[in-house]
Design brief:
single chain; Udp-n-acetylmuramoylalanyl-d-glutamate--2,6- Diaminopimelate Ligase, Chain: A, domain 1; UDP N-Acetylglucosamine Acyltransferase, domain 1; 3 domains; twelve-stranded mixed sheet; ten-stranded parallel sheet; 4 helices
């Protein structure tokens, strides 16, 4: 594919500084880009690389106005780069049909232009939308549904009655709809609470490898439109994750928790059950969330508190040995004063 720089500027809503007629044939990293390719600078600390890169054009922020290459100036260079990279790398969908080594129930409803690889299992009364791709080893349980243009990579398990929307991507090893972790004590014995609900994954959700989404005890576990989840996360029964939220690797969310829209949970965040996290909240890596978090704030620490407060606490920790030494000295002085007072003012 060839595009003139001015065409790319129009595509991403930017402006050209230099020669807009430069032809761009591809995209590359700033260190390894070749002539004909476009790259980007996301941070001023990489400015020195402008003179080193062989790229024919560079996507930059508006404050950068001079370079040996032509520039594409935009407010968010990384976003523009992502859009242009998608433009150059996207391939038109070409269905490969249904492999004879897959097993599909006669009662399943199948859409058009499917790609179903060997050793896929599709259960009774399933509904598979148009242009769905199921890679080898995918299991789709009874009465599950998968919306059009969705992709399920190898060894994904979609359990009974799970509802998956359009343009959903599930990477290898994802398990959707396994039983929620629900037990009640009968003396010392653990009695299982039947998990009779389901999971609904709305449109444009992406779930990383080996992440698990448990079915609800009653009702549904709900991942709403545009949610993005990294690898190795655990979403428990009856959890609701709001639109456009991001969940990073190794996050664990306990049952019946409600996550708002546009929330970001850093790596290894743990969230207890039956609480609410407000819209636009950011929780830093390894934080422990043990109570409701109001919206539009950044939290960190364990238990999670507003980030600025946590920074003050962390700064104070380094002073604890000195503070302990001072407190010990004060304690000795007070004890001496008390002894003096108790002996009628006569020092020993």
């Amino acid at each position: 594919m060839k595009k003139k720089l001015k065409e790319l500027a129009e595509f991403v809503g930017g402006t050209v500084v230099g020669d807009g007629e430069v032809e761009i044939t591809g995209v590359g990293p700033i260190e390894g880009a070749r002539p004909g390719e476009i790259t980007f600078i996301a941070h001023p600390k990489f400015l020195s690389k402008l003179s080193e890169t062989a790229a024919s054009a560079v996507i930059v922020s508006p404050e950068i106005t001079q370079a040996k290459q032509s520039l594409l100036s935009v407010k968010n260079p990384q976003l523009a780069f992502a859009k242009i990279l998608t433009l150059y790398t996207s391939q038109p969908y070409q269905p490969k049909g249904i492999d004879s080594r897959s097993w599909i129930s006669p009662s399943a409803q199948l859409g058009k232009e499917l790609t179903i690889y060997p050793f896929v299992y599709v259960g009774d009364r399933c509904r598979i939308g148009d242009r769905v791709t199921l890679y080898p080893g995918v299991y789709v349980g009874e009465e599950a549904s998968i919306g059009e243009d969705s992709i399920l990579y190898s060894n994904v398990s979609v359990h009974d009655r799970t509802a998956i929307g359009k343009r959903v991507i599930l990477y290898s090893g994802v398990v959707v709809g396994s039983d929620g972790f629900g037990y009640v004590k009968d003396g010392k014995k653990n009695v299982k609470i039947p998990q009779v609900g389901w999971v609904e994954i709305e449109d444009d959700v992406e779930i990383g490898a080996n992440t698990t989404i448990d079915r609800a005890a009653f009702g549904k576990t709900d991942l709403r439109r545009g949610v993005k989840i990294d690898n190795l996360a655990q979403i428990a029964h009856n959890v609701v994750v709001g639109e456009d939220s991001i969940i990073v690797a190794q996050v664990g969310i306990a049952g019946s928790t409600k996550i708002g829209s546009n929330v970001t949970l850093g790596g290894q965040v743990g969230i207890v059950d039956h609480i609410e996290v407000g819209d636009n909240v950011m929780v830093a890596a390894q934080a422990g969330v043990m109570h409701n978090l109001p919206p539009n704030q950044v939290y960190s620490g364990g238990p999670a508190i507003p980030h600025r407060e946590n920074l003050k606490m962390v700064a104070a920790l380094s002073k604890l040995p000195e503070m302990k030494k001072i407190l010990n000295e004060i304690e000795k002085r007070l004890k001496k004063i008390e002894e003096t007072l108790s002996s009628g003012g006569k020092e020993k």
